[in-house]
Amino acid sequence: MALNHRSQEDHMSEKDQVLATVEGKEITQSQLDLLIEQAPQDQQMQFRTHEGRRQLLNEMIAQELFYLKGKAEKIEETEEYQKEFAEMTEKFLKSYMISHFMSSVKVEEDELRQYYNENQDKFIAPDSVRCSHILVPAKQQAIDIIEEIDTGGKTFEQAAKAYSADASNKDRGGDLGYFHKGQMVAEFEMAAFSLNPGEMTSAPVQTQFGWHIIQCTDHKTNEIVPYEAARDSLHRFLLGQKQNRRYVAEAEDLKKQYHVNIKLGL
Which long-range contacts (CB under 8 A, 24 or more apart) does 58-64 make? Predict the structure, then answer.
């Protein structure tokens, strides 16, 4: 147990390693990591490189230096600074109070279930098919595989495992799972949705990825999305509606507490 405790301490000290000091103020590893996590997704990879981390550290140092420069020049005492600071404080307080108010609004489980049960027509899933495919680079190879399956030389699943170039699903017999319109490239989608369960394309289908042999294994239409699958999106929807109603009502109540004079005629 003592060894494990020591390992945790070592990990924490490594994570909070001091990377630089500016007039005695420490800039730590955890502060740098937090900035990287808060950066836009497309920049995070760059900042995680050795050079990227160095650039970010230099930026953190520069900000501390400008802070010290501002303190030395007593910028806080200038009229311009105080005016801008007051405006920023006001904006922050408005934003904070609205956010704080919104966070108090809750949607209970029984509200979710009641809405779901009373609005089943809003939870009908788009038509979907479940298909398997075999992807190969050449048309003639696809034709030969279709013939081999048709003559009983291999099942579709066996052929997918043996020949398909799609490594992401060949070990599952080419199974792509369920998908609805708009999720696949147009040529593949058109062929897939034209098949009945159990049918296979009689000719190869060409897409930008190569030549496909497609087999439909199931077709779902007008199915209601289960409650558990719909719950998260339903919660966001009802919470947004409830927050908006409460926000408008609260604003009207506040108008009774404070003097409001609207001069713009609308």
Answer: 60/20, 60/27, 60/31, 60/32, 60/35, 61/20, 61/22, 61/27, 64/22, 64/23, 64/25, 64/27
